[in-house]
Write a structure and sequence with these properties.
Radius of gyration: 18 Å
Structural class: alpha/beta
Number of strands: 14
Order of helices and strands: EEEHEHEHEEHEEEEEHHEEH
Number of domains: 1
Helix content: 25-40%
Shape: globular
CATH superfamily: Spore Coat Polysaccharide Biosynthesis Protein SpsA, Chain A
Strand content: 25-35%
CATH architecture: Alpha-Beta Complex
Distance between the termini: 26 Å
Number of helices: 7
């Protein structure tokens, strides 16, 4: 299986560090976020990785070269000319996943003890079960989600099928499927995707994966994988780095 680490963002929440460095090279206990996540993927047998780069791209490439790609096969998707956001970044790198039935995409600034192997298994088993049941749609994506505080939440029905999104601060709501009861979960920035996602991208240029999922959820099945109770940190702020150093040795 292959994976993509999304590392092209500007990392504005990690200023002043990101005034002169990419957020991917912010360190937790002497290891960069990039190294932490490459090694995280290795624990689940994933050694073939692509990393997108934009902000201080040369420094990311230098770190990969200096450390021999941290023991993996690492390709680079170059977004120096224009950062494409998460969805656009995935679309640009789509060729890397040719022939893959499923693959992993994750943000570089998340740290977790989520059992990725079980999540991949859940995606595969759900897909196989639906394929065996006529009339049911196979899920094209499985998103890691948790019960935790966040200003932006994904909305799921009782079968954990994605139905929409809400911004708790602005009350903006986007509904892809109308159902009577919805449950709120925060997205963890990790997803297992099937090739069908890449085959059904209607957008060009810059766009987010969330926008893509909300569009696809109108006609395709996207599932949530609840990993509430796991350790999870969005390492986007200096204070999060301090907490991460305590939790991730």
């Amino acid at each position: 299986m292959k994976a993509m680490i999304l590392a092209a963002g500007l990392g504005t929440r990690l200023k002043p560090f990101t005034d002169h460095n990419p957020k991917a090279l912010a360190e937790v206990n002497g290891k960069s976020l990039l190294e932490h996540n490459i090694r995280y993927l290795q624990r689940f047998g994933i050694y073939d990785v692509i990393v997108n780069v934009h902000h201080f791209a040369d420094k990311i490439e230098a770190a990969l070269y200096e450390h021999d790609n941290f023991g993996s096969e690492v390709s680079v998707s170059d977004e120096r000319s224009e950062v494409l956001e998460t969805g656009g970044g995935l679309k640009k790198a789509a060729g890397f996943f040719a022939g893959e039935e499923a693959f992993v995409v994750m943000n570089v600034d998340v740290l977790t003890n989520l059992d990725l192997g079980k999540m991949i298994e859940a995606h595969t088993n759900s897909r196989d079960a639906m394929l065996a049941s006529p009339g049911n749609a196979s899920p094209i994506a499985t998103l890691a989600v948790m019960k935790r505080e966040s200003s932006r939440m994904l909305l799921f029905d009782k079968e954990m099928t994605l139905c929409g999104w809400v911004n708790n601060k602005t009350n903006e709501e986007r509904i892809s499927r109308q159902v009577s009861s919805l449950d709120l979960f925060a997205f963890s920035g990790i997803q297992v995707l099937s090739q069908a996602v890449l085959n059904n991208i209607p957008f060009e240029g810059k766009f987010s994966l969330i926008d893509l999922y909300l569009h696809l959820a109108k006609s395709h099945t996207i599932k949530g994988y609840d990993h509430t109770g796991n350790i999870f940190l969005d390492v986007g702020k200096p204070e999060s780095i301090e907490k991460a150093e305590y939790l991730f040795q």
